[in-house]
Amino acid sequence: MAVRKARPRRPLQPKKKTSLQCGRFTLPLEKPLLMGVVNVTPDSFSDGGRFFAAEAAVSHARRLAEEGAEIIDIGGESSRPGAAPVSDQQELERILPVLERIGDLCVSVDTRRPAVMKAALAAGASMINDIQALSEPYALEAVAGTGCAVCLMHMKGQPATMQHEPRYDDVVGEVKTFLREAVRKARFAGIGADRIAIDPGFGFGKTARHNLEILRKLGELRSLGAPIVAGLSRKSTIGHLTGRPLDERLAGSLAMALLALQGGARILRVHDVKETKDVIAVWQAYKNES
Ligand code: 7PJ
């Protein structure tokens, strides 16, 4: 009978400390992070334009930061199907007045446009959150030479039509291949590994079934070596599962947040920061990491 040899013992190594470099902010990744959503669009997906006024957006951002959001994500272009397209100029007119007044916070700008990225970074943004993973010409160049973090997200198709019968042979495989390639391109452009986060893009060219499959197998993205961002807050999959309208999806969103954490998400993009903070506290205790 074959006897298995004992493996040579390795000296105990301290757990590798990882962090996300967001401009002048170094965000430790030992504990999950919260990215609080502040929409600055008149027709945004879930705030219905309530925060269009810069004043309101600024106070909303401040409140989310006080509630525990480490990152504030501001967006000036709605990705809702059918939303009116905006020009670079309009997008900047929406976000710059907000950005200028919350420069002390770690601000992420949700944009696909290189010109907006450049202006936002010059105005103090610390992260670029791009739903099309820096695929626009000159997007990589716009961010590479800066110290900002990037969130590379998977989307199938374009916002206007992406929810029209999206199909995949293997949704998780396809998302993973896309993100691996996006990370490779970003690294090749000179973006350090400690500046890159990835996001499967829940709801972006995906049905509720696709989203649930990704959620179930989220851990498969871990091997890409970048922290995983999950944006499930108030999304239509929750509406589909619970029958609830946008303003009644808090409980569903919190359930999704917990599942995302359990699947390996390290950054949660949410509208309800205070409540999601409690989910993280419970999960941390369960994982015995707190
Ligand atoms: C996401 C996003 C997301 C990232 C939006 C909404 C729709 N950025 N921007 N991930 N969703 N990284 O807020 O529900 O899931 S816009």
Question: Care to describe what's here?
Answer:
The chain has 290 residues and is of the alpha/beta class. Helices cover 37% and strands 15% of the residues. It is built from 9 helices and 10 strands. The chain has helices at residues 54-67, 88-101, 114-122, 139-144, 171-188, 208-216, 236-242, 250-263, 273-287; strands spanning 19-22, 25-28, 33-39, 71-75, 107-110, 127-130, 149-153, 196-199, 229-230, 267-270. The strands form 2 sheets. Strands 8-7-6-5-4-3-10-9 form an 8-stranded parallel sheet. The chain has a two-stranded antiparallel ribbon with strand order 1-2. Helix 8 runs parallel beside helix 9 (273-287). Ligand 7PJ is lined by residues 37, 45, 79, 110, 129, 131, 151, 153, 199, 201-202, 229, 231, 235, 269.
Name the helicity range.
Answer: 25-40%
Structural class: alpha/beta
The fraction of residues assigned to DSSP E strands is 5-15%
Q: Order the strands across the largest sheet as they lie in space.
A: 8-7-6-5-4-3-10-9
Q: Regions with pLDDT < 50 over 5+ consecutive residues?
A: none
Name every ligand kind in the structure.
ligand 7PJ
Average pLDDT: 92
User: What's the count of strands?
Assistant: 10
Report the principal-axis shape: globular
Largest sheet: 8 strands, parallel
Order of helices and strands: EEEHEHEHEHEHEHEHHEH
Number of helices: 9
Gap between N and C termini: 45 Å
Radius of gyration: 19 Å
